[in-house]
Amino acid sequence: MTDTARDGAGIARAEDGRVVFVEGALVGEVVEAAVVHEERRWSRARLQRIIEASPHRVEVSCPHRLEGCGGCDLLHVNRDHRAAMKIGMVADQLRRAEVAFPGCTVRTLVDDAGRTTVRAAVRGGRAGYRAGGSHEVVVPLSCTAIDPAAEELLLDGRFGDATEVTIRVGARTGDRLVVLDGGNPEDVDVPDDVLAVSIDELDAGLRAWIYEEAAGRRWRISARSFFQNRPAGVDALVEVVDSMVADLASGREISGPMVDAYAGVGIFAATVGRNCTVTAVERSRDSLADSKVNLQDRVKAGTVQIVSSTVERWRAAPAAVVIADPARAGLGRDAARTLLGCEPDLFVLVGCDHSAFARDAALLVAAGLELVRLVVVDLFPGTSHVETVGAFVRA
Question: How far is CA 260 from CA 269, 299, 321, 347, in A?
Answer without folding.
Answer: 6, 14, 9, 10
